[in-house]
Each structure stands twice: as structure tokens, then as C-alpha cells.
């Protein structure tokens, strides 16, 4: 029966042949270095795990009950040589892992500009390709400020050219991840994260959000095209040939939650649209976070700007194109003014009409003493019976 079960499982094992272990076979230099880091770490740990597993089987076999030739030492309790091996080997491995972790943390910092685009091929001093990434519900927007074009759910980059991603989001946290290119980087509203990477092999690769973000998360995917320079120029020309323009109004409509959005190209992008998205003020009439931070850096709003304080709170459900409601400050006072105002305040007595209820008093009055009238002795005796 056990052999039959093994035979039945063999077709399932054969299905693994169709799996694409892209993380272990990436096409970008950063992803390759990350893969090597994983491999080295696993090998170093296996230097301890494999001997331990072997010794467990060896000791169980050697000191089995049937083996009467095995040396029996019930009083043995210490071996200096064995202690040195047991403690020295793990310590050396921990030191190696610590050194590798420290160096790779700095060398593979996603904010750090690349030193190389491939092994033995140093990165050029040319400016990298800048791509502004916006995670929406539930699609991806890619803006190319150098070329003035944008795309939804499609990304392209030339082979062996450094890419600088600037990443943000509009509502909830997402995670920008192209396994063949580099590790995942979080996309958060009101914040900008960065990723430097390079693609070394031409091809079409999958990109997606690796952080759950709601109902349309499963379809929040895009295609990443690694092409040669001629292919990239053709893709840019295709975007410029589109009839659609990514204006501010078009973006506000695009920002509304939607699922399974098809690929769409835009031949132009409104100026500073990405900055408005990052500062959470793409909707007309909203105060940008940068403006609020500039006010705070000068010590607060001050009397000069006490009027005309626009709301900063971000509310994605109010994307109807209407102007935000303006708030106004009625008065400004110091702590000393507030204390003086509280001292000058006099208490206005309330209505003197008694309130019904035993022992209750109106607000602002001292509680009335409870009145208790004992029952006559005859009534008490009747109640006790």
C-alpha cells in the first residue's frame, strides 16, 4: 500500500518541472546578488545542520540495543575537544554570517546608486532612467518624467541601463516587486521609497504587489519589458503616439478603485503630477503636505495665516472634483491668555426648578442629603412576617 502511494505521488512531483524559480534564476544584477546571498547563507548553515543530522542517525545506529560491541560509558560527562568543536564551529559560522549581512546591507541598499550593472561591468556616470511608480487601488501607474509619458500596468526599461524607481501609493500600503529585477520595496501614501536596479537580459517579466491591499489585490499585476535601446525607443514612440493625456482630472478618475484595468499609455503627463500625488494634494483645493511642513518648520501657522487653512486630511472617497471645504481659525491665544480667560469666567446659575428623583440635584449644585424616614413599628413587623 505504501508503494502504491509513492507511485501516485510521482506525477505530482513531475508537475514541479513546470515551475519557474525566478528568484533563483533572476535577470537583474541586484536580484542575482540577492540570490547569491541566500545561497551562501544556506550553505553556511548547512555546514552545521548536515553533520548534526548525520550524527543523529549514526549514534542511533551505533548504540542500538542489538550492537553489543559498542563501548558503554555511563559515567562519561565531558570532553574538551568535543566542546571546542561544538562551540567553535557555530561561532565561526555566526561571524561569517554577520560579516556577510553587514556588507550586503550596505552594498544592496535600495537607495544606493549602483556601482555596477553586471559582474565586471562598472556602472556608467550617465543619469539613470527615472521611473515614478504610483500604487493605486488596484493598478500600477508608471510615469517617465524624462520622456513625458506614462503607462498603466506596463513598464519598460532598456537592458544594462540603471533604473531609479521613485515609489509611492495613494491609499493603503502596497509592495512593488519584480522578482527577476530586485527585491520588493514598500509603497506608502504620503511617503517616497526608492529602488535602484538594472535588467541584464531581455524578456517579459512579471511584476505585482506583494502586500495585501484589498479586494482587487489578486489582479494587481503588471508586465515588465526588458528590451534593447531600440526596443525601448519604440515603446516610448508607441506611448507618444497614444491619444490619451494624463491630466490632473484624468488621474483623479484613474485613482478611483478599479480591478483588472487593461494596459493604457499616455502621451503626456501634467507637470508636477507625481509631486502632487506624493504630497496627497492632487485633488484641487487641498493643502499639500509640503506646504503644511513648511508652515510647521517656521514654528506653526502664525497670526498672518490664521485665515485660509485648507484641510490636510486625505479622504480618497471625496474624489468627485469638488473643491475641499475651507476651514477658518476663529481666534488665536497664548497659554497666558487661556489661563486669564478661565480665571475671569463666572458661573451662571441654572434653572432652580427641583429635579424629580431621590437624592438628585441639578448640575452646579451640591448634592442634597438623602432623606430616610423609618417606617412605623407596626409596618416593620408586618413586613418582617
TrEMBL record:
The chain crosses the membrane at residues 37-61, 82-102. Residues 15-112 form the Cytochrome oxidase subunit II transmembrane region profile domain. Gene3D superfamilies: 1.10.287.90, Cupredoxins - blue copper proteins (2.60.40.420). Residues 126-238 form the Cytochrome oxidase subunit II copper A binding domain. It is a multi-pass membrane protein. SUPFAM superfamilies: Cupredoxins, Cytochrome c oxidase subunit II-like, transmembrane region. The keyword tRNA-binding does not apply. It is found in: Cell membrane. Keywords: Cell membrane, Electron transport, Lipoprotein, Membrane, Oxidoreductase, Palmitate, Respiratory chain, Signal, Transmembrane, Transmembrane helix, Transport. Pfam families: COX2, COX_ARM. Its main location: membrane. The keyword Calcium does not apply. Residues 346-385 are annotated as: Disordered. Belongs to the cytochrome c oxidase subunit 2 family. This is Ubiquinol oxidase polypeptide II. It comes from Tardiphaga alba. The gene is cyoA.
